[in-house]
Design goal:
221 residues, alpha+beta, Glucose Permease (Domain IIA), 2 domains, 3-stranded antiparallel sheet, 39% helix, rod-shaped
């Protein structure tokens, strides 16, 4: 009986051990499958995130390309409009010219932005445009002056003087001789800057758009 009982107990212990090993194996398999599932979910989340970032990048690149195209078209339209304006504008007399290319926004005798009667012309130029001497002469003043900003005064023959204001940079100096059309400075480098051009003869303002050689007189229009 003792031997039979011992064998029964040994068989029960062996069965319990095998059951414990089976349960442990199932637990480990469940953990492995759970880890694989979590890893797959992580990879899927990372893939979706990468796809989202790629889609956002492509959308940003498309917006940038569209903006560049719109800016290019706007620039081409401005250039075309400026060219058409330049073609439509009357040409100055031979040997005479305005100091900068652009659109005349205030003419001689019209009211300026402050409501005062303009004694010259205001030209809306392109940023960074070259400013030239309207006629040969000598620089008699160069630098800042009151509310005009950076100005030049050029003394010409036959009692003429040019006052030019609105420079971003002056590239000449007092005492220097300049030729007709010679560069004397640059407009400011940003925005749509204005250049003011006043022409005087014997101290009296005359219409700059009539050019040099206009008859003598006081305050001609």
């Amino acid at each position: 009986m003792d031997r039979i009982e011992a064998e029964r107990r040994a068989a029960a212990a062996m069965a319990a051990k095998r059951e414990a090993e089976r349960l442990e194996a199932e637990r480990r398999e469940a953990e492995r499958r759970l880890a694989e599932q979590r890893a797959a979910e992580q990879r899927l989340a990372e893939q979706k995130l990468a796809e989202q970032k790629l889609a956002e990048q492509k959308a940003a690149e498309q917006r940038t390309a569209e903006q560049k195209l719109a800016d290019q078209r706007a620039s081409e339209q401005r250039t075309k409009a400026e060219a058409e304006t330049a073609r439509a504008a009357p040409s100055p007399p031979a040997g005479e010219r305005l100091p900068v290319g652009g659109r005349v926004t205030v003419r001689y005798g019209e009211a300026d932005r402050y409501g005062a009667t303009s004694r010259g012309v205001t030209i809306q130029a392109r940023a960074g445009s070259t400013v030239v001497s309207p006629q040969a002469g000598t620089i008699v003043f160069a630098g800042p002056f009151r509310g005009y900003g950076q100005i030049l005064i050029v003394e010409h023959s036959h009692g003429y003087h040019s006052l030019i204001a609105g420079f971003g940079r002056i590239d000449t100096a007092v005492g220097r001789r300049v030729a007709t059309g010679e560069p004397i400075g640059l407009m400011p480098a940003d925005g749509s800057p204005d250049l003011y051009f006043e022409l005087r003869r014997h101290g009296q303002p005359i219409n700059p758009q009539r050019g040099f050689g206009a008859p003598e007189g006081k305050g001609q229009g």
